[in-house]
């Protein structure tokens, strides 16, 4: 199912405020060896990855943790995780490399131009206080035509999600993400999808390609 509404998202001055404005390092210091969405929603994420990411691609899993949800049967050249907790990523069996990097302190990605062929941001975009700067960086480190796959559900750490995210409905959040991608200025073919399984966590995706 695709989205047919066309919400115009207006951001207020406090759009990127959060209830917990302490450094993210504090919140993520203790590892959470858990999944953040249920099994059926994870399967929906995996199916999108299967559909959009060719084998032997170098993948960047931004805002990574214990699970990357990539299909097991597909071989990737490498899967690099960037997140806040080293132990979570060390236990992620799909990552070939990982690094701790706070995107809310420094949105500049520590990678070269065109280093990757696919980018993932799974159930995490709601925590970014400079999402457009981060997405611009994804446009730089991903090769032209690479897919950037942003997925989200209705579960999140409420105190760490931005005011903009909390103020919107599930549908409207897809348009918020689309507006970030448009403002970043380096994405095309933006698709909005509802891949929610029945009687499980909902699962929405916004997929775009680097120009
Ligand atoms: C809800 S978890 C999702 C983890 C993983 N993507 C998944 O699908 O299970 C949110 C993740 O965002 C990452 N994150 C939160 N704030 C961040 C920041 N300021 N910079 C980088 N990563 C951040 C954390 O490391 C955390 O693992």
How would you describe this structure in keywords?
alpha/beta; 19% strand; 211 residues; Rossmann fold; binds S-adenosylmethionine; 7 strands; 6 helices
Q: What is the level 1 CATH name? A: Alpha Beta
**Share of helical residues:** 25-40%
Total strands: 7
What's the CATH superfamily, by name? Vaccinia Virus protein VP39
Helix/strand/pairing category: alpha/beta
pLDDT averaged over residues:
96
Q: So what's the oligomer here? A: single chain
Tell me the CATH architecture: 3-Layer(aba) Sandwich
Please describe the topology of this protein.
Layout: H1 24-27, H2 39-52, E1 58-62, E2 78-83, H3 86-90, E3 97-100, E4 118-122, H4 131-141, E5 147-152, H5 163-166, H6 170-184, E6 187-194, E7 204-210
Parallel strand pairs: 1-2, 1-4, 2-3, 4-5
Antiparallel strand pairs: 5-7, 6-7
This protein binds S-adenosylmethionine.
Descriptive overview:
The chain is of the alpha/beta class and 211 residues long. It has one domain: Vaccinia Virus protein VP39 (Rossmann fold). The chain is 25% helix and 19% strand. It is built from six helices and seven strands, in the order ααββαββαβααββ. The chain has helices at residues 24-27, 39-52, 86-90, 131-141, 163-166, 170-184; strands spanning 58-62, 78-83, 97-100, 118-122, 147-152, 187-194, 204-210. A seven-stranded mixed beta sheet has the order 3-2-1-4-5-7-6, with helices on both faces. Helix 4 (131-141) links the parallel strand 4 (118-122) and strand 5 (147-152). Helix 4 (131-141) crosses helix 6 (170-184). It is globular, with a radius of gyration of 16 Å. The two termini are 25 Å apart. The model has no long low-confidence stretch (mean pLDDT 96). The structure holds S-adenosylmethionine. S-adenosylmethionine (SAM) binds at residues 24, 28, 36, 63-65, 67, 83-85, 102-104, 122-124, 127. The site of S-adenosylmethionine has 17 residues, from loops.
């Amino acid at each position: 199912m695709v989205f047919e509404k066309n919400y115009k998202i207006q951001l207020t001055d406090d759009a990127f405020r959060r209830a917990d404005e302490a450094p993210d390092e504090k919140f993520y210091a203790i590892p959470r060896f858990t999944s953040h969405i249920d099994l059926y929603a994870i399967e929906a994420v995996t199916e999108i990855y299967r559909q959009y990411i060719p084998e032997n691609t170098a993948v960047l899993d931004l805002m990574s943790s214990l699970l990357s949800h990539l299909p097991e049967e597909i071989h990737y050249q490498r899967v690099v995780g960037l997140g806040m907790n080293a132990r979570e990523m060390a236990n992620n069996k799909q990552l070939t490399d990982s690094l701790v990097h706070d995107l809310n302190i420094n949105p500049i990605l520590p990678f070269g131009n065109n280093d990757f062929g696919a980018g993932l941001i799974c159930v995490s975009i709601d925590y970014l206080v400079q999402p457009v700067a981060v997405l611009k960086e994804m446009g730089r480190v991903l090769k032209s035509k690479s897919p950037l796959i942003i997925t989200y559900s209705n579960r999140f750490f409420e105190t760490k999600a931005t005011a903009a995210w909390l103020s919107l409905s599930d549908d409207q959040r897809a348009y918020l993400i689309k507006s970030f991608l448009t403002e970043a200025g380096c994405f095309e073919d933006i698709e909005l999808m509802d891949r929610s399984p029945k009687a499980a966590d909902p699962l929405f995706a916004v997929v775009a390609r680097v120009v």
